[in-house]
Amino acid sequence: MRTDGVLSGLDPEQRTAVTAPAGPVCILAGAGTGKTRAITHRIAYRTQSGEISPRHVLAVTFTARAAAEMRARLTSLGTSAVQARTFHAAAMRQVRYFAPRLLEGRQMPELVESKARLVGLAAARAGVRADRAVARDLAGEIEWAKSSLVEPGEYAVAAAKALREPPHEPARVAEVFAAYESLKRRQGVIDFEDLLRAAVWGIEEHPDVADQIRAQYRHFVVDEYQDVNPLQQRLLDAWLGDRDDLTVVGDASQTIYSFTGATAGYLIDFPRQRRNAVVVRLVRDYRSTPQVVGLANAVIKQARGTEAKLRLELVGQRRPGPEPELKIFPDEQGEAAAVARRCRELIAGGMPANEIAVLFRINAQSESYEEALAEAQVPYVVRGGERFFERPEVRQAMVALRAGVRSIPGETPLVEAVLEGLAATGWHRDKPPPGGAAREQWEALNALVTLSQEYASAPEFLPIGEAGSVQRHVTLAMFNDELARRAEQQHAPTVAGVTLASLHSAKGLEWDAVFLVGLADGTLPTTYAKTPDQLEEERRLLYVGVTRARRQLWLSYGQSRSTGGRPRRPCRFLPQLDRSTAAPERTVVDRSRKTDRRRVQVALCRICGATLLAGADRKLGRCPTCPSDLDEDLHERLQVWRAATAAELKVPAYVVFTDATLVAMAERRPAEPAQLLAIAGIGPRKLGQYGEAVFALVAGASPEEVAQKNFEN
Ligand code: ATP
Ligand code: MG
After folding, report:
1. Residue 118 burial (C-beta neighbours within 10 Å; 0-12, 13-18, 19+)
2. Atom number, ligand 1, closest to the C-alpha of residue 11
3. DSSP 319
4. What is the mean pLDDT of residues 163-171?
5. Residue 668: inside a domain, yes or no?
6. What CATH number is given to the structural domain containing 266?
7. Shortest-distance ligand to the CA of residue 254
8. Which amino acid residue places its CA nearest to atom 20 of ligand 1?
9. Is the residue at 606 inside a domain?
10. Which of 691, 698, 541 minimizes the C-alpha distance to 227?
C-alpha cells in the first residue's frame, strides 16, 4: 500500500494522530515533537490511501514562511496538490475569486499593508496627538480590536477587560479607530483584517458562496493553532460549516502573538468543545540535542499562567551535542562581529549557510547583523520576508521578466526563459560575487531562478475550479503572475544564506545552528512588557528561540548598546548557565585584592571578545569553544617542570599551577611580569615564586635546566 512510507517514520503517538478517522483531531505538544510532521503525514496518509482528495484539503498556518515549510514537507511526501497557506493568503484568494460576484462588478479594493500612515491621518482627524511611534501603537490597538471582533464602540470596555495599555485614553483610541474605519471606506481601501472579515461575510451572508467554498474545501488542518485569533477562528468556523473534519496542532507554551489578539484558549478548550476529538500528546523531541532540550525545559519550567498549564517536559531523542554557550560582549557591535566570525567558521567547517540562523527580538536589530555578516563576507537573507520583493534588484528583475514575455519565445522552458530574462539585467548565474551587498543581490536573483525551478515542477497555484486541468507547459507569463501574487502576499523564496529573523517569524522553523542575540533585559523582555502576562509572553519567545536549534545554540548580548554606554543585565529568563560555575571563583576573588577583582570582572575572550564568566575560561583567556593557539612543546615542558617542582616542594602539582593555568601560559607565552599577571589567578606571589622559571621556559629552556636553577636558588 502506498501509505507505508508515510507511516514508517512515526512514533506510536504520532501514528495515532496520523491514522485517526475523519473528524476532529487535536495534537497538544511541545516544540520539536513532530506536530508539523504529524499533520503533513496525516494529510499524505489520507490522500494516498484514497480516503480524501488532496484538492479538498486546506492547511493553514500563520506566517508565509511556515506555510512554505508546510508546502515543502507535503511536496516531499508526494502530496503537492494540497493547498497550504496562511489565513490571509487563503482569505485573499477566496475574496479575490468571489469579488466580482460579491461586489457586483466593482473592483476589489486595494489592500493597505501598513496601517500606521492611515492611522496617523485618522488621529489628526480625531484631534489626537500621534507621532510615528504613537501612530504605530494606535495601529496595534486597532489591529488587536479588529482581530478580537471588537468594534470601535466596544473598544473601551474590551480594552479594559483585556488589560490593554493603549497610548491614549481608551475613549480617544476608540475615536481614532472610528475615524480610521471611515477614512478607509472613503479612500476605497481595506486592511488585512477587512480581508478576513470579507471572507467571513462572503460565506456567512451568501449561501451560494458558502456552498462553493465548502464543496472545494472539506478537510481542514491548522498548524500553530495556539496563535489563532477570534477573527481567524470565525473564518475557520465559516469554512467548516457543520463539518468537523478538522485537525489542529499547537503548543500553548509557544503562544507569542497574544498582543495581536491571538489566544491559546481555542487550542486548550478544543477537547472540551469537541467531545469526539482524538487528542494526542507528544513529548519526544526529535529536533534538538538533549543539551538544547535541557535548556528549553529550564526556560519554560518557570512559566506561569494559563498557557503554562498544559506544559509537558520534553525528552530529547537526539544524540548529545555541544552545550549551549552564553556569551557576553562589551557592546552590541562586538557581539555582532563575533557572531559573524562564528558563522564564517561554521560555514568554512562545512555547515551550509542556510542551516544557520541569527534570531532577535525586534527587526531593528537586524541591521547590525546585516552589516557584520556582509563585512565577514557571509551570505545572508533577512527574514520577515517582506523585504525580498521590495529589494530594488528584485523589482528590476521582475520588470525584466515581464519584458521577457515579449522577447523570449513562448515555448522556451521556464527556467531557461527566466535565466535569459535575468541576463538582460546583467545578472549571470555562474558569476556569484564573493560577498557583501553584491553577493546578497546575486543571491536574491538566484532565489528567483530556484523559485522558477520549483514552480515549473509543481505549479501549485491554479485558480479554484481549474485545479483539475493541470497545464503541462509553464510559461514565463504564468510565472510572472505567480511572482506578482507572491509580492503581494510578501512571500519570499528561500535563498542560500544565513537567516536573519525575528523570534516571531522563526516559529515552526529549525536550523542546525541558532544564534539568539541581544538577550539583554530591556530587549528581551522588551521594556514594553510590563504586566505579568506580557512578561510571560516574552519568556515564551525565548522558549521558541531556544527550541529552533537542532544542535548548536549560542546565546549572547552586548553589555551596553554602544561602546561606553550604560551596562545592561542579561535576559532574566535565562537559567543560570555559566554564572553558576563562575560563583566559586568570585568568592575566592572577593577575598583577594581589589585590583584582581577588577581584572576578573572585565575578563574578555582574546579570540572573540566575549566576557568570560567561568573561572576556568577566565584563566584560559578565551571561551572553551574558541580555537586554541596552544604551543604544545611549551605546554609539555611546563608540565614536566611543574611535576619536578611539585615533587621537590612535596605538594600536589595543582598547588604550583593548575592545569588551566598551564594551558593559559602555553597559549599566551608570557615573556614579562605584566603578561604573567594578566593570566587570571596569577598574583604577585606566584610571580615572585615561579616567574623566572616560566619566562625561561617560554624563552625555550628545557624543564630540567629550569628545575635545576630553581633548586640552586
Ligand atoms: P514546533 O513546535 O517548533 O513547530 P513541531 O512539533 O512541529 O515543532 P516538527 O517540526 O514537526 O516539530 O519536527 C521537528 C523535527 O523532528 C523535524 O526535523 C522532524 O522531521 C523531526 N521528527 C519529528 N518526528 C520524528 C520522528 N518520529 N522520527 C524522526 N524525526 C522526527
Ligand atoms: Mg511545527
Report:
1. buried
2. 27
3. P
4. 89
5. yes
6. 3.40.50.300
7. 1
8. 37
9. yes
10. 541
Q: What is the pLDDT of residues 83-136, one digit of tens each?
A: 999 999 999 989 988 888 888 777 788 888 778 889 999 999 999 988 877 888
Query: Does 506 reside within a domain?
Result: yes
Distance (angstroms) between ligand 2 centre and the Cα of 195 equals: 26
Question: Domains in the chain: how many in total?
Answer: 5
Confidence class for position 42, pLDDT limits 50, 70, 90: very high
One domain for residues 467 and 351: no
Q: Which residues are in the CB-under-5-Å shell of ion ligand 2?
A: 35-36, 508
pLDDT digits over 506-550, tens only? 988 999 999 999 999 989 998 888 888 889 999 999 999 999 999
What does residue 324 show for φ and ψ, rounded to 5 degrees? -60, 145
**Residue nearest atom 23 in ligand 1 by C-alpha distance:** 34
Nearest-atom index, ligand 1, CA of 38: 11
Q: What is the Å distance from ligand 2's center to 515 Cα?
A: 20
Q: What is the Å distance from ligand 1's center to 118 Cα? A: 42
> Which range marks the domain in which residue 34 is found?
4-93+196-282
Judged against a pLDDT cut of 60, whether residue 464 lies above it is answered with no
Q: What is the CATH number of the domain that holds 693?
A: 1.10.150.80
Pocket of ligand 1 (CB under 6 A): 9-11, 14, 29, 31-37, 251, 254, 286-287, 508, 510, 547
User: DSSP states of 84-145 as a string?
Assistant: EEEHHHHHHHHHHHHHHHHTTTPPPPEEPS-SHHHHHHHHHHTT----HHHHHHHHHHHHHH
pLDDT at 384 (0 to 100): 58
Q: Rounded to the nearest whole angstrom, what is the distance from the C-alpha of residue 198 to the centroid of ligand 2?
A: 28
E strands, 563-675, are none
Q: Are 648 and 614 in contact (CB under 8 A)?
A: no
One domain, residues 229 and 82: yes
- From residue 351, alpha-carbon distances to 80, 347, 514, 621 in Å are 29, 5, 12, 27
Q: Ligand 1, closest atom to CA 251?
A: 2
| CA of 316 relative to ligand 2 center, distance in Å | 16
| Proximal ligand: closest to the CA of 288 | 1
